[in-house]
Amino acid sequence: MWLEVEGFCDLVKRWWEEAQVEGYASCVVARKVKLVKEEIKKWNEEVFGDVKIRKYNILDSINILDVKEESSGLCNEELVQGKLAKEELGKNYSFG
Q: Which end of the chain is more exposed for a tag (fewer CB within 10 A), N or C?
């Protein structure tokens, strides 16, 4: 998912280059990996939020629209909303 976000690789490169660490080469690499990991975690939370909650909310919206469709039908706006929600679910949350 991250690799599909425009500019993500550039961010990782920037974080790597900005990480100023001194010491033995193996220690430098290990510390830089840890620092970049921390940056990725913060970025992930800002960009994607809690993925499980977002997935649950999309599933809930789809379910509500499905129930309404069975009972009274949907207007065009709701049909589009349901289609977009299903597309987002398939594209971004099909990993489990």
A: C
Domain boundaries, the chain: 2-45, 51-92
What tens digit of pLDDT does each residue of 53-83 get?
A: 888 899 999 999 999 999 999 999 999 999 9
pLDDT at 94: 63
Q: List, in order, residues 6 or more apart from 43 with CB less than 8 Å away.
A: 11
In angstroms, the Cα distances linking 71 to 12, 19, 41, 62 are 49, 57, 43, 14
Rounded Cα gap, residues 77 and 92, in angstroms: 22
Q: Which two tokens stand for residue 37?
A: 């990991």
Contact 62, 85 (CB under 8 A): yes
